Amino acid sequence: MNSTGPADGTNRWNPPTAVLRDWKVDDAPRLLDLVSASSDLWNQFGNQQLSTVGECERFIRSTYSPGQEVQRHFAIELNGQLIGNIGLAHIDHTHETAWVSYWVGTGARGHQLAARGLLAACDWAFRNADLFRLELGHRVNNAASCVVAERAGFVTEGIERAKLKYGNERFDVELHARLATDPEPKHQGLVPLEIADNLSGREQNRSDS
Asked: pLDDT by residue (tens digit) across 183-193?
C-alpha cells in the first residue's frame, strides 16, 4: 500500500483503485481475516459469531448482501482487496432516514478511506435512495470515528448517556446527523470514493420505480 502524497506536497491520499462495491459471498475468507486481525471490530457485528468462513458467508448473505429493503452495505475495496464497510441500516422511506455505520480493517486505517467511503455512501443515499436524514453515533471516547463523521459533513447533535454496554462498562454516545440540504463538506484533498460501475441499484431511484 503506497501512502505517499502527491508532488505538490498537499496531504491527499486518493488511490484511484479504492471503490465502493457490492458485498459477495466470496468475501467471507477476507472478512474472517479482517475480523480476526482487528479485535476492536467485534463490536461492529453485535452478537454475530464470525469465527469461521461458513459463519462469515451466512452473515454476508443475511446482512451485507444487496437487495434488502431496510439496509444497504457497501464493501470498501482497495487495490482489489476488501478492507472495510459502509452501512446504511434501519432505512425508513416514510421518514426518509437511515442509520449509518462504518469500519476499516487495521492495516488500512489512517488514510481517510472511511471518510471518503462515507462521503460516497451519503451521495448514493441522497440521490439513489431518496433519503433525507442520515444518522450515526459513536462512543465519546472514539475520537477516530468522530473525525470520520465530521469530515463527511455530519453535524454533532448531542449525547446519549450510558447508551452502550460492553462487558461491565457503559459508554456515552455522541450523535451526529447529515441532511440532504446540508452544505457539501469541504475538506482539502478529500474526495468521495468511486462507486463500482456494476453496483446493484446504482442507477435506480425510488421516484422512478
From this structure: 988 775 688 89
